[in-house]
């Protein structure tokens, strides 16, 4: 790769949505003006990059010359960073990352476990380049893969993708090369390429981060697909809820057109390609390929039964190859390193890397790219920094609403398509939510069911009525009114819905129930038999009380209680009147003496 | 922006329709653009779009009611969105939503009578490191505790 020769030293500010929402854009301006005021602006460039992945510690600033990573930087810190670090070469200790294991401060991001254990090939340039400047991508080897493709036959490229054994990263894990081949061989003209950027899973933001951090890698992947399949037009269907991603895609497309990477006779070849952006309008089911295509056509985004598959009859009934953002971003890498080399990363049947969104009760919330086959334990404890507040891990939920829960005993399970499927979960888009002892698994299943029920398009009865009925049963159980018969009903409904729904949304909607029943049946039993919620989450099954031994009668809880459920006065231990209590937990949060107890 | 009092054709919407009349599949784009001009999609606008695009009103309603981005009723001056993503859920988003409903005297999806606030939930804003998180217009409030909500809302009253 060509290394970009920077005349100036660079200061990289994370410009991912997480950091921007905590004020990263203000840092950019402030840095620039402070450098100017100190006459140092000729020495340093300040760049708003894509997501660095380390969202928990945002806003993040990296001083590139010595790889120093500063965490949770605010405007008030800029002056010190400039005068102390940049001018005097001294670390600003208080803003360095603290290693949760030994409380040591670490300056270089290369020494932080979160980054050390990753295998960043897709995210490599996210956080290093300015995503709004095409020359930075080109100078880091961008569009070289496309150029290389023009010297090969389209069928050779498809062969290369097949050799790489790349499986679609949208969830199902269908071999990408095979899908390309089917589309190429299908009859019909024109053929379409679609990039699915409708990332609707709660707790998943990897596609968004790739687009925000390195939009050209997605465009290049689509261009190569277009050339290989024989298509001249591509659509990117992106969530309207991702305004920054949409903005950066538009800039990238404009720049690629202006520099001849998109449009007519690209780079002097016979190949022409255009890319259009279609903004989604907010419907989870539009992540399903046939629903997505209906939405591009301007209809309600409802799926249709298959066959024929989209590779034969897709958008406007023409052959269509739909892959997601991460799949396309892999393509230039495969071309550059060769399918065989790519296949060496990961496992036999799941090659390459996977970007995971780590969230929940984990210390290092963020985005991590790992080789396929890494164990859940390594991801959670090494990269994720372990469980928040020293609590005990209970389970990992992986794959979004369609996925499932994996209990603590199975943490050594490798993360790849097949082993997750066998364990009752799925890769999905790669959302990984860590759950600790304070998570109620019945409540969690209810949460996902509520989501899939709301998002069901309503076209087929098993999904429309079935998810509603399952939700009602779960509500009954979490309200303390469940019976053992309900479990039998849940199991029967799950089977029927999985077998008879029209699309993936319905087919996978019961997964959260099936997997929690499989591994956490005792929690269902506690709700049904003992009328208790062991994790203290289901409101109808918990109550608060004040331990008179610990109560200092300070009136803090009484003052904060929004429903006047606490009685007492200064010097007199307080009492909670349970009929008035709405179980909001504010008293528990506010009591300085841990006198409020749950149970 | 919030209230439309006209029985005649909305001129800007007419321009939007004109620009997209011949594009296949443009209905969603037209609805998005019309909503950004008018603020919401009152029945007059739906009718204008149906006539202008040569579609039945039921087709336009069908699309407008399917996607969560479209609103058929006026919107509040301040839009409060509570993130209900998985990370926010396990870190207490339900309690945050309940407190907001209590304090604003509206349910999720509703707009206060004085058109000051609209309260809604979103599936995930992707700022999971800040969970539980809400946004009010373009401002983000993360790592929220229920007791902080009153002061936050008062800033927008």
TrEMBL record, chain B:
Cofactor needs: [2Fe-2S] cluster
GO terms of molecular function: 2 iron, 2 sulfur cluster binding; metal ion binding; oxidoreductase activity
SUPFAM superfamilies: Thioredoxin-like
Residues spanning the signal sequence: none
Record keywords, A-Z: 2Fe-2S, Iron, Iron-sulfur, Metal-binding
Cofactor binding description: Binds 1 [2Fe-2S] cluster.
Pfam families to which the protein is assigned, alphabetical: 2Fe-2S_thioredx
Binding positions ([2Fe-2S] cluster): 83, 88, 124, 128
PANTHER family, alphabetized: BIFURCATING [FEFE] HYDROGENASE GAMMA SUBUNIT, NADH-QUINONE OXIDOREDUCTASE, E SUBUNIT
Family matches, as NCBIfam families: PRK07539.1-2
Family listed: Belongs to the complex I 24 kDa subunit family.
Designated name of the protein: NADH dehydrogenase
Species in which this protein is naturally found: Desulfuribacillus alkaliarsenatis
């Amino acid at each position: 790769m060509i290394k970009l020769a920077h005349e100036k030293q660079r200061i990289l500010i994370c410009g991912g949505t997480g950091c921007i929402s905590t004020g990263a854009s203000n840092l950019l301006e402030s840095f620039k003006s402070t450098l100017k005021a100190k006459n140092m602006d000729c020495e340093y460039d300040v760049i708003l990059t894509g997501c660095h992945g380390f969202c928990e510690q945002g806003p993040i600033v990296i001083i590139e010359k010595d790889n120093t990573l500063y965490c949770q930087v605010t405007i008030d810190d800029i002056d010190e960073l400039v005068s102390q670090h940049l001018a005097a070469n001294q670390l600003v200790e208080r803003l360095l990352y603290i290693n949760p294991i030994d409380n040591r401060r670490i300056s270089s991001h290369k020494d932080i476990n979160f980054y050390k254990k990753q295998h960043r090939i897709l995210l490599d340039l996210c956080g290093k380049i300015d995503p709004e400047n095409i020359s930075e991508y080109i100078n880091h080897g961008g569009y070289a893969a496309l150029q290389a493709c023009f010297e090969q036959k389209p069928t050779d490229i498809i062969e290369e993708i097949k050799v790489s054994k790349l499986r679609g990263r949208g969830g199902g894990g269908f071999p990408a090369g095979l899908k390309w081949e089917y589309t190429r061989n299908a009859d019909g003209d024109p053929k379409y390429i679609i990039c699915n950027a409708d990332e609707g899973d709660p707790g998943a933001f990897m596609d968004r981060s790739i687009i925000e951090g390195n939009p050209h890698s997605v465009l290049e992947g689509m261009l190569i697909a277009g050339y290989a399949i024989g298509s001249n037009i591509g659509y990117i269907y992106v969530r309207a809820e991702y305004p920054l991603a949409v903005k950066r895609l538009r800039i990238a497309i404009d720049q690629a057109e202006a520099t001849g990477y998109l449009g007519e006779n690209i780079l002097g070849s016979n190949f022409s390609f255009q890319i259009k952006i279609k903004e989604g309008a907010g419907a989870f089911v539009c992540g399903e390929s046939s629903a997505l295509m209906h939405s591009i056509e301007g209809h309600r985004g409802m799926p249709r039964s298959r066959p024929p598959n989209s590779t034969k009859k897709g958008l406007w009934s023409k052959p269509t190859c739909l892959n997601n953002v991460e799949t396309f971003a892999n393509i230039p890498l495969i071309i550059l390193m060769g399918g065989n080399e790519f296949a060496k990363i990961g496992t036999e049947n799941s090659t390459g890397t996977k970007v995971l969104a780590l969230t929940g009760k984990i210390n290092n919330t963020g985005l991590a790219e790992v080789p396929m086959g890494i164990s859940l334990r390594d991801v959670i404890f090494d990269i994720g920094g372990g469980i928040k507040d020293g609590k005990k891990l209970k389970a990992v939920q992986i794959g979004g609403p369609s996925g499932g829960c994996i209990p603590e005993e199975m943490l050594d399970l490798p993360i790849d398509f097949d082993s997750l499927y066998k364990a009752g979960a799925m890769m999905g888009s790669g959302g990984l939510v860590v759950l600790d002892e304070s998570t109620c698994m019945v409540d969690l299943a209810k949460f996902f069911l509520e989501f899939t029920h709301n998002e069901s398009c309503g076209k087929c009865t098993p999904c429309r009525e079935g998810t509603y009925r399952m939700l009602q049963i779960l509500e009954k159980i979490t309200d303390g009114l469940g019976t053992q018969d309900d479990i039998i009903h849940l199991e029967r409904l799950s089977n029927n819905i999985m077998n008879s729904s029209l699309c993936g949304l319905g087919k996978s909607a019961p997964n959260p129930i099936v997997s929690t029943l499989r591994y956490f049946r005792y929690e269902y039993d506690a709700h049904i038999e003992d009328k208790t919620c062991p994790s203290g989450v289901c409101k109808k099954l918990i109550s608060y009380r004040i331990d008179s031994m610990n109560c200092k009668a300070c009136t803090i809880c009484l003052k904060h209680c929004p429903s006047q459920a606490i009685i007492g006065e200064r010097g007199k231990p307080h009492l909670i009147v349970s009929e008035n209590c709405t179980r909001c937990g504010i008293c528990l949060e506010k009591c300085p003496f841990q006198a409020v107890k749950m149970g | 922006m919030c209230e439309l009092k006209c029985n005649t054709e909305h001129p800007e919407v007419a321009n939007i329709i004109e620009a997209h009349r011949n594009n296949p599949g443009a209905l969603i784009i037209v609805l998005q653009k019309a909503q950004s001009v008018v603020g919401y999609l009152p029945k007059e606008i739906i009718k204008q779009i149906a006539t202008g695009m040569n579609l039945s009103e039921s087709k336009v309603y069908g699309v407008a009611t399917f996607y969560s981005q479209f609103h058929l009723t006026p919107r509040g001056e301040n839009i409060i969105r509570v993130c209900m993503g998985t990370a926010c859920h396990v870190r207490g988003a339900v309690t945050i939503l309940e407190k907001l409903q209590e304090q604003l005297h509206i349910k999720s999806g509703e707009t206060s009578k004085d058109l000051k606030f609209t309260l809604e939930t979103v599936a995930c804003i992707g700022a999971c490191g800040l969970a539980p998180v809400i946004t009010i217009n373009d401002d983000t409030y993360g790592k929220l505790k229920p007791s902080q909500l009153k002061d936050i809302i008062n800033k927008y009253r």
